[in-house]
Write a structure and sequence with these properties.
The chain is α/β, with parallel strands linked by helices. The protein contains ten helices and nine strands. The strands form three sheets. The protein has a four-stranded mixed β-sheet with strand order 1-4-5-6. A three-stranded antiparallel β-sheet has the order 7-9-8, covered by helices on one side. Strands 2-3 form a two-stranded antiparallel ribbon. Strand 4, helix 4 and strand 5 form a beta-alpha-beta unit. Helix 8 packs parallel to helix 10. It is globular, with a radius of gyration of 20 Å.
């Protein structure tokens, strides 16, 4: 986010935390109290580098006390974690056609306050990111994109929404993701693989695990699991050796059990 602001030569300030620490409501309040000129506050709901789930509700209560526009990156959480956009006072929530919606990659979408969206008119430095113009084109053109529509992605998105409804909605999907995460975490601990994060800040989206030993060969581990039908992620933490496993998608508890069996066989 800071890099984007820098490219647009905006005045900005980044609240910095350790990679394994969540954003805190206290730090947000302190920043907004210190900088009275702040007009916008943006945060990530679920951080997929580690798996941290930031406290959206608690932070939103602080943000609502100030005259700032509230922007939430919910790319990795929307559709899989219950949230009340109106109650949280979110002005712009950004997410994606894939991730928890379980469609395919190809477009992002924004759920916006109409009042805030109207204020975007003429206040833009990018043709492709002119969300007011895109909204107007869709309103006037019966849902038409300004440029070539990603028709296959839209069709997949529509089917994914039907699937979400058939599953029981966001609450049901959240329950399944949580179950996936619980089975995975408990099983990995039994195999001597500890999660990076404490349970209270762990999201059900993706889970990071520490290497079991200094001489652990991640590449060999990765390739063995791939041969057994499972693909995992390398870690991105600067001061800890980790790898990551996703809990979302068309993945069910029985899949996590099969994964654990594959890991057990690989570690033998």
């Amino acid at each position: 986010m800071g890099t984007i602001a820098a490219y647009y030569r905006l005045d900005y300030e980044v609240l910095t935390f350790h990679e394994t620490e969540p954003v805190t409501a206290r730090a947000v309040k302190q920043a907004l109290d210190t900088r009275k000129d702040i007009t916008h506050f943006a945060m990530v709901h679920c951080e997929t580098t580690t798996g941290i789930l930031n406290e959206l509700e608690a932070i939103s209560e602080v943000v609502k006390e100030y005259p700032v526009t509230f922007i939430v990156d919910a790319i990795s959480s929307f559709g899989g974690i219950p949230m009340d956009i109106k109650a949280c006072g979110i002005d712009f929530l950004i997410s994606s056609a894939n991730k928890c919606i379980q469609g395919v990659p190809g477009f992002g979408f924004i759920i916006a306050s109409r009042q805030k969206l109207l204020q975007c008119k003429g206040n833009v430095r990018s043709l492709s990111l002119d969300i007011y113009d895109q909204w107007q084109a869709m309103e006037q053109g019966k849902g038409k994109w300004r440029f070539t529509s990603p028709t296959h992605v839209v069709r997949a998105f529509y089917q994914a929404l039907l699937d979400l409804e058939a599953e029981g909605g966001v609450e049901a999907r959240y329950k399944r993701y949580r179950q996936n995460n619980t089975i995975l975490t408990e099983g990995m601990r039994r195999l001597g693989l500890d999660p990076l994060l404490p349970g209270e800040i762990q999201s059900p989206i993706i889970t990071s695990f520490r290497y079991p030993a200094d001489d652990f060969n991640f590449q060999a581990f990765y390739e063995s699991l791939e041969q057994k039908g499972f693909v995992i992620y390398p870690g991105k933490i600067s001061d800890a050796e980790t790898f990551r496993i996703g809990n979302i998608g068309d993945v069910y508890p029985e899949d996590m059990e099969r994964l654990l069996q594959a890991i057990r066989e690989t570690l033998q």
